[in-house]
Amino acid sequence: MRRARLARGKKGKPGSAKRRLVSTGSGSSSSKHHSMVLALYALNHPEVLRKCEGVLELGAGAGVTGLLVAKACGRPADVVLTDGEHHVLELTRRNIEANFKEDGRPSCEYLRWGENVAEFRDKVGTFDLIMATDVLYCPEALEPFFTTARQLMSSKPSAQLLVSHTNRSYVPHYKVRKAGSKCGFKCTDIPLQSIPGCAEMSRATAADPRHPLLQRMQVFRFTLKSSIRADPSS
């Protein structure tokens, strides 16, 4: 798997742009581990990437997950990275330019959950695969996040939303599941131990109290309930 290169910051220090994005876009110093976990899951399920028409990353930040998936899927132009902060999107754009040629590269777009969704959908359409990396650290974000994902997900039975989440006292895992169900999604927990490469990551971070990978992280797979697919306007 080819590693994505991250744009340099203003002082030219490798990774400085990434560090700013981690604190701005995710609110968590373990974002890189969440990004790798989601990317590992997608890369170890090539049938998902092979069949999907359109990949969307919500709250992309530095875009690590989207960049890795774009490299692997063979159709980088089908990948759209989004964020709700313009200054973050500028760094996302620089990371895309550092990793892809001008013809056939992922795009990045401004998207604020629950706000300019209809306009965004008219512009880029719907997606078979939507991903989000540890972006639900605010309780008020749950409903607009899942509403946005539902509006942008295709009606195919195979369409799915992959979410990695850190269990927090103010946004515990059960609230994420509950919010998804309220917005028409069926949730399946994906054990981290079942994702190739995660066990190695867990051992590598075990000594760092900031990154209790297996203890606090969970990956959720959300699919639309059949009644919602039958009536997308519901």
Automatic annotation (TrEMBL):
Key words, A-Z: Methyltransferase, S-adenosyl-L-methionine, Transferase
Superkingdom of this protein's organism: Eukaryota
Annotated region described as Disordered, given as residue ranges: 1-31
Residue stretches of biased makeup (Basic residues): 1-21
GO biological process: methylation
Keyword Transferase: yes
GO molecular function: methyltransferase activity
Record-linked SUPFAM superfamilies: S-adenosyl-L-methionine-dependent methyltransferases
Protein name: Calmodulin-lysine N-methyltransferase-like isoform X2
